[in-house]
Structure of Putative thymidine phosphorylase:
Amino acid sequence: MSVVAPPPSLPPLRAARLQLHAAHQPIAVMRSDCHVCRSEGLSPRSQVLVTRGERQVQALLYQTDDERFPPDQVALSEAAWRALGLAEGEPVQVRHPPVLESLAGVRRRIYGRRLDAGDMAAIVRDVVQGRYTDVHLSAFLTATAALPLDADETVHLTHAMVEVGQCLSWPSPVVVDKHCVGGLPGNRTSPIVVAIAAANGLVMPKTSSRAITSPAGTADTMQTLAPVDLDLSTLRRVVEREGGCLAWGGAMHLSPADDIFVRIERELDIDTEGQLVASVLSKKIAAGATHVAIDIPVGPTAKIRSPEAARHLAARMQSVGERFGLVVRCLFTDGAQPVGRGIGPALEARDVLAVLRCEHDAPPDLRERAADIAGVVLELGGVAAEGAGPRLALETLDSGRAWERFVRICEAQGGLRTPPQAACVAPLVATHGGRVVHVDNRRLSRLAKLAGAPESPAAGLRLRVRLGDEVARGQPLLELHAQTAAELAYALDYARDAGDIVQVVA
Amino acid sequence: MSVVAPPPSLPPLRAARLQLHAAHQPIAVMRSDCHVCRSEGLSPRSQVLVTRGERQVQALLYQTDDERFPPDQVALSEAAWRALGLAEGEPVQVRHPPVLESLAGVRRRIYGRRLDAGDMAAIVRDVVQGRYTDVHLSAFLTATAALPLDADETVHLTHAMVEVGQCLSWPSPVVVDKHCVGGLPGNRTSPIVVAIAAANGLVMPKTSSRAITSPAGTADTMQTLAPVDLDLSTLRRVVEREGGCLAWGGAMHLSPADDIFVRIERELDIDTEGQLVASVLSKKIAAGATHVAIDIPVGPTAKIRSPEAARHLAARMQSVGERFGLVVRCLFTDGAQPVGRGIGPALEARDVLAVLRCEHDAPPDLRERAADIAGVVLELGGVAAEGAGPRLALETLDSGRAWERFVRICEAQGGLRTPPQAACVAPLVATHGGRVVHVDNRRLSRLAKLAGAPESPAAGLRLRVRLGDEVARGQPLLELHAQTAAELAYALDYARDAGDIVQVVA
């Protein structure tokens, strides 16, 4: 029998930057025969904890036998590199991550037991710390789809999602906000609603997201009109001066768990009410809102497809909101076809400008919908009597006060811009005459994305017809806008059977 | 408006070998600015289909800006490289994978609808083709844990798992087999049972797995006694000549979906009855068995913890087996403590040898348990009357016929070997006197793995006491075996509070 020494302290590895992009996934590449892999018994595709002083990040481990990777080195992806704030060659420690205690809650939930506030807090904390693998995240979201979150769990989840992020606070006792549950291309009412609310003296610090699966998010559209990547002090200054802003929310770190959950739900193509409520309300609570109008488009190819589902969602939004002292009012809107004419950042921005400037050919549906939502916001904010909001909203537009306020907000954010124009434009024409009876929102979005939206801000499409219109053979149904001929060709290729995307019946 | 060309056909990329190990996950690394990423609109961490002639593989895409990766190259991990059978610099096509149709079945299952045979076949086919991401796999397994697989679904899943792999067939009308549902360290009865069955004229082509989470699989233990990595023709020759074999099943490609599901279940630490039944039976059916004895250890730290759960599992194993014409008989065995004395490949092999050679200090519990299981196998195989199997099994051991047959099987597989001996051995002693009242199987396994099992075949531990034994202070409870002093030190460090692993009460 040998004499036994205490466990030796392992010498650190040198950090090397791998310049690998993996959509927020930290990755570590180490030689299979390095002393750490061997003594720690690390296997490929396991999780490791990489530590540099006080900072640490959990990473996915891959191993290599390639001589280009020295055995005393750990090569780190961009996400890991940034999280640790490293310089080339700095020493780091790599070891097994601690046991993931909160996973016991996920397992209990899989087997049908409910989660309390403590369980949810522990899960969400580990999620934002990057300790959940895709396997764990998918199990959590699947379990809460198989047995939907109840009201209490939705409150706990919302609370947990708020707690792990930053929270904004405002001196005003009333802070209004709006949100659309999405799924409807072109529904770009926020810039108009903010301009109307701020012009009427309300405080509306609107933060928006960039597109995730859609051809344009509000932040993408607004970016063609003004800078949106504001730091917190700029945002405060804009709101203080103009009453409202239209900023990108990404830099604010509001409800950071949401982005992680959304990525997995998108991959599974599942969308549950409980997650939706927690997602929307956690962001609004973290943004400091006290009164929120929620636009719920209902239609066969929108996210919410039936009036029953819409009513159930609205009731849950209101009841959960109440638990946080948040006043929520939902509007059910027509989700049968896109709003306005443009789909894509710049094309939607031009619709917004037309409405704000009261141009004679401004899309009437966008004007009307923005006025309805702004009306609810004005009523919630106490500057219009119940039922008088939409009229005040239209007056604010028609008097030019909304446009004037919008210009001032854009100037405060860094200057009003002119949306770009695409280099290549091609029409998609009707192959036969008849009446437009159906518009497929999902496939229209896909088409706009194939044309290059939102990465190319000028790309997308412009609808030339609406439901119920009579069209002749050869008449344009829509125009495709792209920056390159190749992208235009791809989109046209997809759209060959456009009869299905915009359905014309003789 | 520009004139539109048809979508250009993309020039291929050159394949480069990355030598990256990611536990079967094919990975492709491409420059962010390469023409394929740009024109296909590929985003990091998405799935791509890599094609070389007739062969294709679905891979996880990472992007890089590193100059060491040329923009006309795609660097591929070992799993992708092997799947495509590539040579350095060969041209490959990279594009979006086709839509994963079977995911609609997973989504329906999440929302509580049952899957039919066609759904299961489509899901399992896509799983073994590597088209399911971890997110999809986790969702499927979580959904079937939240709402357990019913009898029909278990049959459909078993059938689907058999169909996607290779199936062995044997000229004999009766082919016996055995399986242990696991969770009990040292329970290494297979070599003994095969020797007894073959010595009595039965056909028992036993294929076993290597350890997944345990300190030794039967294949790991057998490898210290004879070669186990047999190709199909060698396996057939061994069985033809000796009636039995003890081979590694990995090369046989039997039920390949199983390994994929097991990896995800392990990460989630969930284990459902339906998946367990489909896993065990699909492998037995694919191996060509007609009669199977299943050992179900029951105990507080075994996989199956209650008699009720064991009975339910046995009933499901039998009823599903029947649907495939498979005769299944289950034995409930004591799962309160390990079987035999050794835990780890070589240490278990020595217990097996002692029982087969009828050595005076052979572990009696291993002898008895192997005889019970072999008895059921002999009865199922029709060479012993009902109830007379265990006696015949013991006679076969005592007469030396089992040992003689075991030696012949090992010789046919390539030669009998002597299990290796560890370089470092250290005892773990009782910190106080008393009676052994509890043995934690899970933590014993962990301890043996920390000592280096199964990678170091000589590593592991040897129990010196059993439940109910009286021990004095300072008396060894177990011996740790390791190849290096460092590994021994790590294991001892973990075992500091060994009182909990082997609990002694005054």
